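Input structure tokens:
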């Protein structure tokens, strides 16, 4: 397995979601980018799992960092696996964590596991539908749930509903945190709807994004963070890492109320979710 880090040619295979390519980073030894149908899905650095290449992944890492004191183990559920960038980060920064990953694409996971050695620790990957899996979780099981579910540039419908958000909230312990990657374009109507949906199920919600995201055209990743009752989000912890490139910002409280004032929760139960 160690020899894979010295390869310079992409490894291309057909997976359930399309054509996957694991491309080595020629400028950073041990770095790999996972593409699915020419869309970059994950970046992994095998020797430094704390190196997070994508800005939105660094935003999710702020939620991980704020979930407990530094180094404290967490119980984490990852809905969507990709190349397991964030499970690797959790294990590197919080050894002893219990992590469960739900990934729909068996062929993709087989490719990732063969080429990119998995981190040590209590990490288990289950091939399943994310909506069905989270609905079956016992209440108060996890400290943190992370959702990154996409088919191309679309989040599957089942993962956008109030039923799904409610299932996630029930899977979390009191005061547990939720982070979800939202891909959207101005005027961010999908983000507004997902924020309204989360506010109906969680005690407190915020958005974490790159500074000036609302002024730039094209698609942007926005991270939704939420907490179950009791208590508010740990805002000081979430803001702690937003000064690094790209500079970030948080929408919370009054800053969040105006853009979603006209949005309504997306009602309905989750359906089978391919990702």
């Amino acid at each position: 397995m160690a020899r894979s880090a010295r390869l310079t040619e992409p490894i291309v295979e057909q997976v359930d979601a399309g054509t996957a390519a694991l491309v080595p980073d020629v400028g950073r030894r041990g770095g790999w980018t996972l593409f699915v149908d020419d869309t970059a899905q994950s970046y992994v650095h095998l020797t430094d799992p704390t190196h997070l290449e994508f800005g939105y992944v660094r935003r999710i890492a702020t939620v991980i960092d704020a979930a407990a004191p530094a180094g404290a183990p967490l119980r984490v559920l990852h809905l969507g696996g990709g190349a397991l960038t964030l499970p690797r980060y959790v294990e590197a920064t919080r050894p002893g964590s219990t992590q469960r990953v739900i990934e729909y694409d068996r062929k993709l996971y087989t490719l990732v596991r063969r080429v990119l050695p998995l981190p040590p620790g209590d990490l288990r990957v289950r091939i399943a539908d994310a909506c069905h899996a989270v609905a079956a979780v016992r209440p108060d099981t996890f400290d943190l749930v992370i959702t990154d579910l996409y088919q191309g540039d679309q989040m599957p419908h089942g993962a956008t509903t109030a039923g799904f958000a409610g299932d996630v909230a029930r899977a979390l312990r009191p005061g547990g945190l939720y982070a979800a990657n939202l891909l959207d374009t101005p005027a961010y109507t999908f983000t507004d709807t997902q924020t309204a949906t989360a506010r109906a199920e969680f005690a407190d919600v915020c958005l974490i994004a790159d500074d000036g995201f609302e002024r730039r055209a094209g698609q942007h990743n926005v991270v939704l963070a939420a907490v179950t009752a009791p208590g508010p989000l740990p805002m000081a912890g979430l803001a702690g890492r937003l000064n690094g490139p790209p500079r970030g910002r948080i929408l919370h409280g009054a800053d969040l109320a105006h853009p979603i004032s006209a949005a309504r929760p997306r009602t309905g139960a989750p359906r089978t979710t391919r990702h």
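Confidence is low (pLDDT under 50) at residues 1-5. The chain is about 25% helix and 30% strand.
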